[in-house]
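Sample 3 of the quickstart, ligand guanosine-5'-monophosphate:
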Amino acid sequence: MTLDSHIHKVLWTQDQILHRVTQIAAQITLDFNAAPDPPLLVGVATGALLFFADLVRRIQLPLSLDILRPQSYGSDSLSNGDPSISLDLKLGVKGKHVVLVEDIVDTGCTLSSLIAHLEAKGVSSVSICAFLDKLTRRKVPVKLVGDGKFYRGFECPDHFVVGYGMDFAELYRNLPYIGVLKPEHYK
Ligand code: 5GP
Ligand code: MG
Ligand code: MG
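Result:
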């Protein structure tokens, strides 16, 4: 059984994804071009890592990279709203301008807790770069730090999506596009 045969519907193709990633990278390049210090791009593992890799190689600036892993929710599709950190940053972030790179924002609980975590470390600003945003499902407003900005790839309809780093039960992260599974595979 092939990977593609598990997919009910493709929402964004690989071409559409990379086109949008290129646009976001150009915007970040423009916004941080005049900044005195290089930004620190932080990828939220595991879901954002494909987006992170595509994004950072298109940003035309000196920058640093690090990874943050929130506590996993297990293999179900519901978040519990209380993510703590399971893998912290390697680099010091005091006084840094951080761009937090996420796969998808849903309720906003995960991002809010990660932002609070970075703020407590004394960052100068936190910007958010989320590839997808389920705006209609927001429970917690995402509060930026300092003069941080919010970059968004696409607004996502209220479906549980997989691919381009995003999983269902730790599968499908390697799909190069984003789609919705056939109902029999959400089990
Ligand atoms: P939040 O804390 O905003 O409710 O949830 C954010 C996290 O939940 C995302 O980083 C992602 O890991 C997961 N998530 C939310 N919606 C989806 C979805 O449609 N598909 C997948 N695979 N993960 C999702
Ligand atoms: Mg994520
Ligand atoms: Mg997941």
